[in-house]
Amino acid sequence: MLDFNFHGDLVDISSELYEFIVKVVEDKIKNLKVSRAEFDKLIITVNKLADRVNDLALAQMKTEERLNQLALIVDKLVSGINSLRLEVGRLSETIGFGLEDIARTILPNWLYKHLNIEIESLERRFFRIDGEEIEVNLYGVGRRGSVRVVVLGEVKSRIYGRDVEAFYSKLKKLSGVVGVDVIPVMFGYLIHPSAEVKAGELGIFLVASYMK
Question: Which residues pair with 183 in a beta bridge?
């Protein structure tokens, strides 16, 4: 049994009780030290994690900034390509119409000289077949002796075999509409050998701007 002796405001405790209290206090302090150490470790871990998050956030910001810069570059490139496409389109249109004017001047004489076809003028003409609009660069009605003929012409600055095939496909669509003998002619600045071979096979006349 533990002894308690009271003397006024002072309390005397036995040695056994004193040792018990000291042990309890020491255990509490030890537990507190362990908890404090674990807490300090947790704080260090949290700080390291926060630093890592900051690093990742900075890296993401840099990546987003690069992506934004790349997007701006791509936008400028696309805009430049579109502008170039428009300019090329305008240039092609200008060259095309200029070449058509030359063809309208040269072809009537060439047709008369080489094919005995009399024709007064050639013009651009549009046909609508089964809902499809088909454009012909050169169209004109003429005569070969007493026979009425129609000249259908395609104008291209450079004529290749594939161009001859494309024009032939257009002629097949128009054959039922024109209804008379068709004289197919292609006119250009340059005629590639592949075009000459294909035109010979398909019965299309090729005329270069320098021919008379």
Answer: 151
Q: Is residue 77 in a domain?
A: no
102 part of a folded domain: yes
The separation between CA 49 and the C-alpha centre of its own chain, rounded to angstroms, equals 43
CATH number at residue 177: 3.40.1350.10
What are the distances in angstroms from CA 116 to CA 64, 134, 174, 182?
A: 72, 28, 23, 14
Considering the domain boundaries, does residue 19 fall inside one? Answer: no
In a domain, 137, yes or no: yes
Q: Could you tell me if 175 and 184 are in contact, meaning their C-beta atoms sit under 8 angstroms apart?
A: no
Contact 174, 134 (CB under 8 A): yes
Range of the domain at 152: 96-208
Q: What is the pLDDT along the chain (212 residues), one digit of tens a residue?
A: 444 444 444 445 566 666 766 676 666 656 655 556 666 676 777 677 767 767 777 777 778 777 777 777 777 777 777 766 666 556 555 554 588 999 999 999 999 999 999 998 999 999 998 888 999 999 999 999 999 999 999 999 999 999 999 999 999 988 877 777 899 999 999 999 999 999 999 999 999 988 76
How many domains is the chain built from? 1
